[in-house]
Write a structure and sequence with these properties.
heterodimer; A: about 130 residues; Hypothetical Protein Ychn, Chain: A; globular; B: about 130 residues; alpha/beta; 5 helices; about 35% helix; about 20% strand
């Protein structure tokens, strides 16, 4: 059967930054697809939006801080991450609360966070070959 | 007929993910479709463990997977990063990290996430079973 859809892939990450392994597994997969030049979009939804809130320090828990990992996405050609608008609202967050270039320690073009509505998300999923949930 | 990539992210006996994936793989093959690749990721790598001994009156999921893989000559890939982290290693990795012995069942192949990329792009359908 021929593939009717594009080779675009969506990664949906809905776990908090301090979940045991899902955020890093999601990031590992995302970066691997990017290495192979497969268009991949990361969508943070639900608790996942907390992954990109600024001023977090994982070392207190003996864990990696995700900020630098998000800062490295540009090296893989990923310059935008989608953030679920409804989740931001749920947690009382605005775009100003999210990581900036200083947090991500990146000298390159800073990662851009774009708010996404349920309708836009549905369209993104419909246009993708596969969706991975983490 | 379609080809499927089946991704298993759950360990046997801790969630429904592994058993559902196993049943789904069987259904795919019995329906005349094909399985392009099984990919065991995160806790799903425990499905490839040779160290699991369930009670005699319970299904031995890792061996059931092994039999399915052998019968249909399936490509069954275990993510190397997830596997090393969880102590599921083949003899080669065991020697590299100076571990006592390998612990992966024959039939499973330890490899990288590139295999997931290839399976996603090549197979007609990608189905993930998560805990």
């Amino acid at each position: 059967m021929a593939n009717l859809k594009s080779d675009k892939v969506v990664f949906m990450s809905s776990t908090s930054p301090w979940s045991p392994s899902d955020p890093s597994a999601c990031m590992d997969s995302l970066l691997t697809f990017a290495v192979f030049d497969i268009p991949a979009t990361l969508v943070l939804h639900g608790e996942g939006v907390l992954q990109v809130v600024k001023n977090q320090n994982g070392s207190i828990l003996g864990l990696k801080t995700l900020a630098k990992t998000f800062g490295a996405l540009g090296l893989y050609g990923i310059d935008e991450v989608m953030v679920e608008a409804r989740a931001l609202q749920h947690y009382g967050l605005s775009m100003h609360d999210l990581l900036d270039a200083a947090d991500m320690e990146t000298a390159d073009q800073p990662l851009r966070f774009t708010s996404i509505t349920p309708a836009q998300l549905a369209s993104l999923i419909a246009d993708s070959k596969a969706v991975f949930n983490f | 007929m379609s080809s499927f990539a089946i991704i298993v992210r759950g360990a046997p006996y801790t969630s429904q993910a592994s058993l559902s994936a196993y049943r789904f793989a069987n259904a795919v093959l019995e329906s005349g479709h094909s399985v392009y690749r099984l990919f065991f990721y995160q806790d799903g790598v425990y499905n490839a463990s040779a160290q699991i001994v369930p009670p005699q009156d319970e299904m031995h999921l890792p061996k059931a997977w092994q039999q399915l893989i052998a019968t249909h000559e399936l490509d069954a890939v275990v993510c190397v990063a997830s596997a090393l982290k969880r102590g599921v290693v083949d003899d080669k990795e065991a020697a590299r990290y100076e571990l006592a012995c390998g612990s992966v069942l024959p039939g499973f192949v330890i490899s990288g996430l590139g295999q997931l990329v290839d399976a996603t792009i090549t197979a007609d359908r990608v189905v993930t079973f998560s805990p």
